[in-house]
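Support request from a user on the community tier.

User writes: "When I paste my structure tokens into the form, the page sometimes reloads and wipes my input. The last time it worked, I copied everything first. Here is what I submitted, just in case something in the input itself triggers the reload:"
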């Protein structure tokens, strides 16, 4: 186990209020893709946990590895080219990476459900909404077709779809984007899962429907007592519904801890950059902003282009030669963690800016092969 994850294991989540074991523990998870361009470490040593009844927000730019992390939890990585090469995913103490495909089918949709990013592509266009929900019910519950249909209608009504007894026989193309998203939520929650993975479930929706969906998820969470892994790039959504936050960058966790602590005292330059990029409401007397919106320089590198050491260093305003070494995820006095050599100074505002440092040596994604750590 890496130093990063030993530090993470020694810490306690600020959301935990008892000695009860977390519903999900992801420890040093590594998911690589083996392609003609080489080995791509899309998820490379990710560690976090979710307490029972709590919501963890997994945040980061597109390409940071959030969706690959969620698919790895459920064993949905396409093989080939993908493979979980290390780490563990403990659900109620059981390591899902050791489960067979048949055993995972018993978990998916029953104990752990997932709302996928695009309901338009996740719903089968040739089957009615009802048939797809009823199939999920009958896979996991001993109900006949009539009983399953009644449960499906109840769930469609529960998620706010009008005239559910009629809508149940409609095809996905007959529904709006918001209705399809609600149908996906109904399908995901109909078996009352213990853990819900929501992969940017409101990205394609307008703000009014987005607010309704978030309120719905919060209400159903309280009613069912389930935990949620909420994947998003919207920091406003995270502030509204999440208890804890894991900020992800280039396949690794940059900052992790209680949402309030991270929002009030961010200590990783990437997290600070994300917050600085948010639009501000302050205006001049003429109704115009005085400053331009902050933009983090550069882009998230492709997995084959990850730099050596700290993966954010080529875009970081505080990077030095020390950042050529990979920083561990270290615990702060306030209970949250960050992977930055200068986290305390950055948070206190005493670290001198050096400007973005483009270029530099790249990490060798085949190093794990040389070390013999991966089980291929």
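"...and here is what came back when it finally went through:"
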């Amino acid at each position: 186990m890496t130093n990063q994850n030993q530090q993470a294991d020694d810490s306690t989540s600020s959301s935990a209020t008892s000695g009860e074991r977390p519903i999900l523990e992801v420890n040093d998870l590594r998911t690589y893709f083996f392609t003609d361009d080489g080995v791509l470490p899309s998820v490379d040593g990710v560690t976090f946990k979710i307490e029972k009844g709590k919501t963890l927000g997994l945040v980061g730019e597109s390409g940071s590895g959030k969706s690959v992390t969620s698919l790895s939890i459920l064993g949905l990585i396409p093989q080939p080219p993908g493979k979980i090469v290390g780490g563990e995913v403990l659900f109620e103490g059981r390591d899902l990476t050791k489960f067979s495909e048949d055993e995972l089918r018993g978990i998916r949709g029953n104990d752990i459900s997932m709302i996928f990013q695009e309901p338009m592509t996740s719903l089968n266009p040739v089957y009615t909404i009802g048939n797809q929900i009823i199939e999920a019910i009958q896979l996991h519950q001993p109900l006949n077709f009539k009983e399953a249909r009644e449960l499906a209608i109840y769930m469609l009504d529960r998620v706010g779809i009008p005239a559910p007894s009629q809508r149940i026989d409609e095809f996905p193309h007959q529904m709006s984007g918001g209705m399809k998203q609600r149908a996906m939520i109904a399908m995901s929650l109909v078996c009352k899962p213990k853990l819900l993975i929501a992969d940017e479930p409101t990205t394609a929706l307008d703000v009014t429907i987005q607010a309704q969906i978030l309120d719905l998820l919060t209400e159903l969470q309280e009613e069912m007592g389930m935990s949620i892994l909420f994947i998003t790039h919207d920091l406003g959504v995270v502030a509204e519904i999440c208890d804890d936050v894991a900020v992800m960058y280039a396949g690794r966790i940059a900052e992790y801890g209680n949402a309030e602590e991270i929002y009030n005292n961010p200590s990783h330059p990437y997290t600070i950059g994300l917050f600085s990029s948010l639009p501000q409401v302050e205006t001049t007397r003429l109704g115009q902003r005085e400053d331009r919106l902050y933009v983090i320089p550069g882009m998230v590198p492709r997995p084959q282009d990850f730099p050596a050491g700290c993966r954010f260093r080529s875009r970081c305003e505080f990077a030095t030669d020390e950042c050529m070494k990979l920083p561990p995820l270290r615990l702060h006095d306030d209970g949250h963690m960050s992977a930055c050599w200068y986290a305390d100074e950055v948070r206190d505002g005493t670290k001198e800016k050096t400007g973005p440092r483009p270029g530099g040596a790249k990490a060798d994604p085949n190093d794990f092969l040389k070390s013999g750590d991966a089980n291929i």
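Agent notes: The reload is a front-end session timeout and is unrelated to the input. Confidence is low (pLDDT under 50) at residues 1-18, 358-376. The radius of gyration is 22 Å. Escalated to web team.
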